[in-house]
Structures are given as structure tokens and as C-alpha cells.
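Weekly sync, protein design subgroup
Attendees: M.S., D.O., the rotation student, P.L. (late)

Item 1: inverse folding check
M.S. brought a backbone from last month's batch and wanted to see whether the design step gives back something sensible before we order anything. D.O. pointed out we never logged the input encoding, so this time it goes straight into the notes. C-alpha cells as presented (110 positions):
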């Protein structure tokens, strides 16, 4: 069954250990503090025990949701990329073109 793990933990060290545990159990990162993957009931209980042990008595919140295929099929992903990411990619390619053009311009002048 699909399993969704989300967490909110202030300590970076503990957050990294939680992420590592999720990846060890074959879950895929879908956001910085959210993992999703297909694991069976026994593996989910093992993961739960491991996450409890990692968190210990430190501050934090971990939530584990079993998600059936039907509900997962109703998932909607809304994603908007930052405008500056696209502009950055365009400006790099423009810079490359300008650099390539410059030697030709010098050759014409000579």
C-alpha cells in the first residue's frame, strides 16, 4: 500500500535522519519534508518504529498515512516554477550566444 510520510522537525540533523530512513524504505521525496512510496504493512510498522526512535524526545511532528490506489489516483499536483528560474536559464543561453558571436565580429573588423 502507498504510504505518505510528512514531517515538521526543527533540527536539521534529525530531519536529515528522517529523510534518510524514508529513502532506506524506498519512499520517494515529493517535497522537502514529504515522502511517498509503496511499502507493505509490516515495512510501514518498521519505518514507524525507526522514525519514533530517531525523533526520540526531541521536538517534532511526523505523520504517516496509508493511501489506497483509488485515493492516490485522485491526487492533483499543482506546480508553478519561479519566474526567475526560467529567466536565469534563458539569460545563460543568451550569454553563450553572445560569446560565440563576439569572435566573429572581431574577425569582420580585422
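Designed sequence read out in the meeting:
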Amino acid at each position: 500500500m502507498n504510504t505518505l510520510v510528512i514531517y515538521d522537525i526543527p533540527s536539521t540533523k534529525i530531519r536529515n535522519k528522517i529523510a534518510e530512513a524514508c529513502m532506506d524504505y524506498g519512499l520517494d521525496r515529493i517535497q522537502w519534508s514529504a515522502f511517498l512510496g509503496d511499502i507493505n504493512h509490516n515495512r510501514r510498522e518498521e519505518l514507524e518504529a525507526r522514525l519514533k526512535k530517531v525523533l526520540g524526545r526531541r521536538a517534532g511532528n511526523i505523520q504517516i498515512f496509508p493511501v489506497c490506489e483509488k485515493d492516490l489516483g485522485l491526487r492533483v499536483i499543482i506546480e508553478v516554477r519561479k519566474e526567475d528560474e526560467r529567466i536565469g536559464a534563458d539569460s545563460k543561453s543568451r550569454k553563450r550566444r553572445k560569446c560565440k558571436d563576439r569572435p566573429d565580429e572581431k574577425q569582420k573588423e580585422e
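Discussion: Residues 18 and 63 are 12 Å apart (CA to CA). The helical segments are 12-24, 41-55, 69-73, 83-109.
Action: P.L. to compare against the previous round before Friday.
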